[in-house]
Amino acid sequence: MPAIGENLRINGARLWDSLMEMAEIGPGVAGGNNRQTLTDEDSEGRHLFQSWCEAAGCTMGVDEIGNMFARREGTDPDALPVYVGSHLDTQPTGGKYDGVLGVLGGLEIIRTLNDLEINTKHPIVVTNWTNEEGTRFAPAMLASGVFAGKHTLDWANDRVDSDGKRFGDELERIGWKGSEKVGARKMHAMFELHIEQGPILEAENKDIGVVTHGQGLRWIECTITGKESHTGSTPMHMRKNAGRGLALLTELVHEIAMANQPGAVGAIGMIDVYPNSRNVIPGKVVFTVDMRTHLLDKLNAMVAEFNARAPKLCEDIGVEFSCEIIGQFDPPAFDEGCVGAVRAAAERLGYSHMDIISGAGHDACWINDLYPTAMVMCPCVDGLSHHEAEEISQEWATAGADVLMHAVVETAEIVG
User: Fold this and answer.
1) Would you say 316 and 305 are in contact if contact means Cβ atoms under 8 Å apart?
2) Cβ-based neighbours of 249, under 8 Å, separated by 6 or more
3) Would strands 373-378 and 189-195 be described as parallel, antiparallel, or unpaired?
4) DSSP designation for 321
5) Which of 43, 119, 142, 237 is the most exposed place for a label (fewest CB within 10 A)?
6) What is the pLDDT of residues 210-248, one digit of tens each?
7) With 60 as the cut, is the pLDDT of residue 1 above it?
8) Whole-number mean pLDDT of the chain?
9) H or E stretch including 228?
10) Least confident of 31-40, 249-258, 355-364, 395-404
């Protein structure tokens, strides 16, 4: 196999221009993006991505859950493809780079190989995974989870958003339900480029994060049920305040995470308070606990402690507690060969790098259960993500995509 030279680099300015053009679709109110999954904006972003892929000579496949696969042929018709990609959907108040960098970084690989007339033995497939964020339809990484056999297609199609709209119905409505069976594709390997979504790389002044492991995750949806009553006329000792239960359990989650340091986190994110009136004591609160660590035994112990202590705390103040796990995955250890390819690429290109554990879940975490997989990370300013002020530099994006290309092309094998 011909050696990959350090002069093989992507076109950083073109990648950046593509990121900015995609960001024009579903603009947020504060400089970021609101391109939630299966919205009209999501559909528009998909069409733009498809047009770019077809202009680069790729053929587009779409499966029954809307995953998009842009294929550049290899020289060996029997060789399994090397996949690369991430997601185009965003948080309601999301940034311009979370997920999108990984998809358009994959497209930039194709464009660069075309520019240089480089062929690979294995086909290369750029992927946009549907509903990675999981904000509108829980859980996160839904479509890659179906691809990996973690969820059934019927179950995924029956997920509903806060307005009661079904995932399957919305997928059909925006016109992105394909005919290809989910999970039918086979992979030689997969790589995903992503912003770190944390502060470590910037603080350590490193260009590249070589992701060795991901954190496991549990999303626990909890309901506290009390009694609605007037805030002014209900004596304090007679209240059944579901909001007070929320306060107690918020502190419990923090306490459990702090007791399991280092490498464990926990918080309460999505919260719905009923009836959410200024002068009515909350009668019901529904919220989601998010617990994560890269150690499975520790993760399970954290969840077990929460489940054991939360009901008693609620009982003591006269409210009822119930919960169920609505999202979960165990901590992945990424393939040593693919991780080695990422590390070698960073060294070959002269980028500073360090091993890192992904604090967020990614589609690569599911695919890792099936095929050799690895991730590349670049810094983001102040570690800020899932926020409209999310920011990276063109230089960081370029470095991440350069390393991604070298790892992908090495794995796909240059011909000639």
Assistant:
1) no
2) 222, 224, 268, 287, 289, 310, 313, 314
3) parallel
4) E
5) 237
6) 999 999 999 999 999 999 999 999 999 999 999 999 999
7) no
8) 97
9) none
10) 355-364
Torsion of CA 204, 209, 214, 215, to 10 degrees: 20
Q: Within 10 Å of residue 273's Cβ, how many Cβ atoms?
A: 17
Please report, as a single letter, which amino acid is at residue 230. H
Q: What is the DSSP string of 29-54?
A: SSSSB---TTSHHHHHHHHHHHHHHH
pTM score, two decimals? 0.84
Tell me what pLDDT residue 250 has.
98
Which residues touch 238 (CB under 8 Å, ≥6 apart)?
none
H or E element in which residue 82 lies: strand 82-86
Return the number of other C-beta atoms located less than 10 Å from residue 394's C-beta: 14
pLDDT at 3 exceeding the cut of 70: no
Q: What tokens were used for 114? A: 């075309």
What's residue 201's pLDDT?
Answer: 98
**Token pair listed for 239:** 């209240």
> Cβ of 149: how many Cβ atoms within 10 Å?
12
Instruction: Indicate the DSSP class of residue 80.
Output: P
**Cα 279 versus chain centre, distance:** 39
Per-residue confidence band for 2, with pLDDT thresholds at 50, 70 and 90: low
| Phi, psi for 403 (deg, rounded to 5) | -65, -40
Would the pLDDT of 302 be above 80? yes
Quick one: which of 213, 238, 214, 215 has its CA closest to 227?
Answer: 238
CA–CA distances in Å: residue 313 to residues 75, 324, 388? 63, 17, 36
Tokens 């480089």 belong to residue = 118
Residue 361 confidence class, pLDDT cut points 50, 70, 90: confident
The backbone torsions φ and ψ at residue 221, rounded to the nearest 5 degrees and listed phi first, read -85, 125
In eight-state DSSP terms, residue 347 is: H
- The pLDDT value recorded for residue 328 is 87
Q: Is the pLDDT of residue 4 over 90?
A: no
CA angle 288, 294, 296 (to 5 degrees): 80
d(CA 193, CA 99): 8
The 3-class SS string of 135-180 reads CCCCCCCHHHHHHCCCCCHHHHHCCECCCCCEHHHHHHHCCCCCCE
How far apart, in Å, are the Cα atoms of 353 and each of 15, 211, 263, 399? 21, 10, 20, 11
Please give the single-letter amino acid code of residue 104.
Answer: L
DSSP SS3 for 327: strand
